[in-house]
Amino acid sequence: MKKDKEYEQQLLKKLAEGPDLKKVRQLFNQLFEQPIFWVAAPVNKDGIFSLSNNPECPLVKKGKGFLKCLNTVLRRASKTRSVEQFTCQAGYQGLCFPLARGDALYGFLVFCHLRQKTSQQALRLLKVLNSTILEKAQKELELSKLYQTIRPRAIALSTVHTVHRLISSSLNLDELLPRIARLTLQVLRAKRCLISLVDKKSNRLLNKALVDLSKNKARPRLSPEAKRIEKKVIRSSNILLKKSYLSVPLIDEEPIGVITVSRKMSGKAFDNFDREILSALSEQAVGAIKNAQLYTEQENMLLGTVKSLSSLLKAKSAYPYTHTPAFVKIALGTAKELGLSEDALRDLRFAAMLHDAEKIGIPEEILKKPTQLSGKELKVIKEHPQKSIKILSPLQLLKPAVAIILHHHEKFDGSGYPDGLKGEKIPLGARILAVADAFEAMTSRRPYRKSTPTTEAIKELKRQSGAQFDPQVINAFLKFAKKQSFKKLLRGK
Amino acid sequence: MGNLKRICSSPLNLKIISFFHQHPATVDTARGIAVWLNQDQDKVAKALGFLAGEKVVVVHRTRVTLAYGFTQNKGMIKRIEKLLEDKT
Question: ipTM exceeding 0.90?
């Protein structure tokens, strides 16, 4: 009932303040020489009241008799639901249009101080006009109400979609979990978020991300209370909602972890709305976490396969001088200076681990020959990579790594092998591997020669910049060579 | 406050700040926010970049998605509230 009254008032207000009624009034002004205009609410025991204007009629202001007259007309119109013509005590003509649709009566349009009676034809026309205006105002009000209801929900839905985009693009758990925590704090307007995951081996909850936006915090620390809450949630698989915190289990087929938020920015208590939001977010988080976990497992499997393959190749190779573990790190350090993506770094890593594959099948006497190779022997070496690389080719995931291995003997000026590729036509990974390979070869000792000192090796690389090596890669290598991590690598060689 | 007044002297900045103040739990892209405000996407993206620099909005970034949320700095939120009250 209260809602109906509210709706009536809103509708009348909209009608009274809208442009359509102003147009009707202008029309009346032209037709009836400036009549007094009213928009009135339905009659009740307290009498009528105008929403659009104060009683403009000077006669109404003068005495209650005129007001009584108007009330009588409104009561009549509310019963008949049709246009009522009336004559006031001062002898002026008036019109009262009930604003009604179906059973509902929303109010009245009243025009008084008319100098003459209105014809039936004009009345019919005005009735249609008023009905149209009412219908339009109703539709606009409904649209506006719908907009007010739907807009916040649409914005919230868009937020859910954006959060999904933000968390589903990461397959790295170390990056993903803090991101989920930060987004949770953003959406729930809280200061502290803790995410823990169940460790499959130990079956224990391990804290994986803790984001604390509080001021004056040193390092965020996990309280025993937080651990107790998490345990309770994971055991029961139920949401725990308290004034100061909200903890939701992350459930796939079974609980995989817990997400807990505390300290609302507003200082208010967490409520059921927060509970709904965090439940929705946790469902998205579970999907993203499972994807990242599967990806990590797959990566680890691939790395294991590559490691086994690498050991196998080394065992099968007649070449006695395998690379040190530092070799892979030098290649990766140089690549990072060049800003390579995670995927490109992975491919380069695999290529560095497997690049001895090219030596499989090369006759031992050529590989171990301490003196310069003959033209025939060099031909064997140059033609061999394409044949031997076939061992790795069936592994689709290693395709980019295979291209790096195949082309790391190419030279920047086009004088290398197997295809004589030049400049940027040589895969970037291969250009990086070429530099790391040359540095490693120079600085390693062989039975037939001493190792070249690091400074000399670097000088040689610089000398070959633009000829054998890509100058960009040499610059990146030089940057990396200045770092402590590089020096540490050399000490461990 | 002076700095915030300067920031809000741009009508678009003010619209964006008012939007986030009204919907503080929102996380959306420049495109999304431009839709909610019925404004040009490029201009909104530029304004959001500026507001992020002023720490009025928080950036959430991945390799492919760039989204924005309202500041979580209590002091800043209070200053914004005061400024919006003064404006109305």
Answer: yes
